[in-house]
């Protein structure tokens, strides 16, 4: 059912809001972890972030938060693996769908979700990343968390959080790190991916809009200098995904026609532009 519904949304045969209505009605009672995780992820990353107009996004996020809360209530006290897996999927969705710091800030401060689970490093960084997008944390707080978790995963989490801050200086610093022209300041592939993931956010379109036109020529130059692995990352993680508009599509098409991107980058750009065309069709634009 859910795979068919997903395909119908992607093909423009089912309104995205109808998918959310079905999720709201059925997912709180679903017991299959794979179904719940997959349906919530599609609703969050595709429907809320790309297929719905920006004006409808807050309502979609609130619906997803409600679903997550219902799952957490139903599975509270569960000690079996399936119940704990459902709780983890719900916790991740609640974090990613938060529109205010209320709730998730309390989880971070307390170190656990009421009724479980305790916050492991992945969940702590996930919360801090969402707080960064919302402008509800500081560079100092990110550095404090990095001191708590100085692992490679911690360094990647910190890179994502710093890039996600809704501050012009933070965005400029992240962009300069991503598209460095000096091999002595190049990010590792892992830190490049982490920084790119934090850079673009649907909540920050006005702040990062000037970087959309810069992305295509600078990605082409970076891919030519650093090779196929980084080129693939630049096309996958650094692409301005939140911008579902014809202007971004036209910039991408022009890049493919005239800029001669490396084969690895070209493949990723083709995929990204196909997804962008699909999102525009779903929106009716």
> Helices and strands: which structural class?
mainly alpha
Element order, helices and strands?
HHHHHHHHHHHHHHHH
Spans of at least 5 consecutive residues whose pLDDT stays below 50 are none
- The proportion of residues forming helix, as a percent range, comes to over 70%
What's the Cα radius of gyration? Answer: 19 Å
Number of H- or I-type helical stretches: 16
Which outline best applies?
Answer: globular
Protein name: Aminopeptidase
Domain ERAP1-like C-terminal: 1-278
GO molecular function, one term: aminopeptidase activity
InterPro entries: ERAP1-like_C_dom
Detailed description of the structure:
GO terms for molecular function: aminopeptidase activity. Keywords: Aminopeptidase, Hydrolase, Protease. This is Aminopeptidase. It is globular and about 55 Å long. The chain is 71% helix and 0% strand. The chain has a domain at 1-107. It has helices at 2-10, 16-26, 33-51, 57-75, 81-96, 104-110, 121-133, 139-148, 152-164, 168-178, 189-199, 205-208, 210-226, 228-236, 246-258, 263-283. With 285 residues, it is an all-alpha fold. Helix 2 (16-26) packs parallel to helix 4 (57-75), helix 7 (121-133) runs parallel beside helix 9 (152-164) and helix 13 (210-226) packs antiparallel against helix 14. It is built from 16 helices and no strands. The mean pLDDT is 97.
Q: Which short descriptors sum up this protein?
A:
mainly alpha; Aminopeptidase; 285 residues; ERAP1-like_C_dom
């Amino acid at each position: 059912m859910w795979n068919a519904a997903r395909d119908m949304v992607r093909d423009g045969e089912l309104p995205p809001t109808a998918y959310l209505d079905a999720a709201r009605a059925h997912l709180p009672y679903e017991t299959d972890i794979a179904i719940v995780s997959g349906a919530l992820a599609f609703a969050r990353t595709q429907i809320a972030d790309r297929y719905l107009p920006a004006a409808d996004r807050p309502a979609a996020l609130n619906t997803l938060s409600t679903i997550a809360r219902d799952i957490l209530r139903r599975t509270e006290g569960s000690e079996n693996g399936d119940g704990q897996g459902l709780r983890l999927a719900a916790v991740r969705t609640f974090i990613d769908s938060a529109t205010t710091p209320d709730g998730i800030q309390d989880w971070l401060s307390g170190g656990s979700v009421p009724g479980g689970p305790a916050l492991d490093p992945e969940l702590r960084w996930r919360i801090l990343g969402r707080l960064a997008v919302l402008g509800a944390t500081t560079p100092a707080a990110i550095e404090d968390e990095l001191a708590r978790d100085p692992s490679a995963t911690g360094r990647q989490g910190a890179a994502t959080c710093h890039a996600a801050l809704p501050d012009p200086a933070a965005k400029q610093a992240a962009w300069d790190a991503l598209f460095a022209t000096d091999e002595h300041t190049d990010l590792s592939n892992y830190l490049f991916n982490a920084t790119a993931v934090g850079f673009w956010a649907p909540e920050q379109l006005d702040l990062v809009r000037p970087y959309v036109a810069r992305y295509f020529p600078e990605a082409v130059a970076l891919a030519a200098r650093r090779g196929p692995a980084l080129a693939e990352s630049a096309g996958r993680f650094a692409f301005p995904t939140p911008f579902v508009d014809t202007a971004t599509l036209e910039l991408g098409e022009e890049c493919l026609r005239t800029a001669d991107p490396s084969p690895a980058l070209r493949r990723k750009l083709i995929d990204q532009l196909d997804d962008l065309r699909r999102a525009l069709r779903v929106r009716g634009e």
